[in-house]
Write a structure and sequence with these properties.
Layout lengths: L4 E6 L2 E6 L10 H16 L5 E6 L3 E3 L13 H18 L4 E5 L2 E3 L1 H7 L3 E5 L3 E3 L13 H9 L1 H10 L3 E2 H7 L4 E3 L4 H13 L3 H14 L4 H16 L2 H11 L10
Length: about 260
């Protein structure tokens, strides 16, 4: 179905792997389109309760394939037509999304990882905000997410200097959820993703929605938003199962409904 990515579903987790390992999974127009389609597919599939984004080979994503844009004279068109739809589809996913950063995440690859809810980094992984090295600014939501993750001063440093950030540094900065040893990489990522897929999916989606809304709401507005979200969550089958499991002194078996 896809030429530049691999899409599979296993144990309620959609695995989306960028699949151009010979270029460290650099983006082309085709890959942007296929990623957008895959993210929308995962969002619509009721059996999918978690999503993992990763890269084939030794890299996560090296950013834009410059050979694919060498004749472009207006990058705004590239962003509006290729990247913005992809990043909007990712932001719209009300399911937990894990970036499994197996190697270098540079440029738009870093942007993609920053937009995910969790970032698991192999001990061999690194981030590079490489845009400045070709005279460009970070895009695809990079400055939006980066500033919120590390604060203004550090975001300026990472964006302007374009220095490599290794896995341990990323963890210390708050860019990584955790660093995973290379020898247990696949098993640890799978266990983390499947743990999320067993959780109450509707509640996780509501948390994502209202955390994002908190960035533009004051305290009083957030109290109203939280009450509305709790009304929705309180009517879910997973809430009823959680209460029943508590009363029966057993672990809940959430269905995602």
């Amino acid at each position: 179905m896809f030429a530049t990515i691999r899409y599979t579903v296993d144990n309620n987790v959609a695995w989306i792997a960028l699949n151009r390992p010979e270029t460290l999974n650099a983006f082309t127009a085709e890959m942007n389109r296929e990623m957008t389609a895959a993210l929308k597919q995962a969002g619509k599939d009721r059996t999918v309760r978690g999503v993992v984004l990763t890269g084939e080979g030794r890299g996560f994503c090296s950013g834009q394939d410059l050979a694919d844009v060498q004749d472009v004279d207006d990058y705004a068109v590239v962003l509006r037509e290729r990247y913005n739809p992809m990043m909007t589809a990712l932001a719209a996913l009300e399911k937990p999304v894990v970036a499994a950063v197996n190697g270098t995440a540079a440029g738009a690859g870093m942007s993609l990882a920053l937009a995910c809810d969790f970032r698991l980094l192999s001990e061999r992984a690194s981030f590079i905000n490489a845009f400045i090295h070709v005279g460009l600014i970070p895009d695809s939501g990079n400055l939006y997410y980066l500033t919120r993750l590390v604060g203004q001063a550090k975001a300026l440093e990472l964006a302007m200097l374009g220095e490599k950030v290794n896995a341990e540094e990323a963890l210390a900065l708050g860019l990584a959820t955790r660093v995973v040893p290379a020898e247990t990489w696949e098993a640890d990522v799978r266990a983390f993703a499947e743990r999320l897929a067993r959780m109450p999916t509707k509640a996780l989606g509501l948390i994502k929605r209202y955390v994002r809304l908190s960035w533009e709401s004051d305290f009083t507005e957030m109290l109203v938003h939280e009450a509305e979200a709790q009304r929705i969550a309180g009517r879910s089958a997973d809430h009823k199962e959680g209460i029943q499991a508590f009363l029966e002194k057993r672990k809940p078996q959430f269905s995602g409904n």
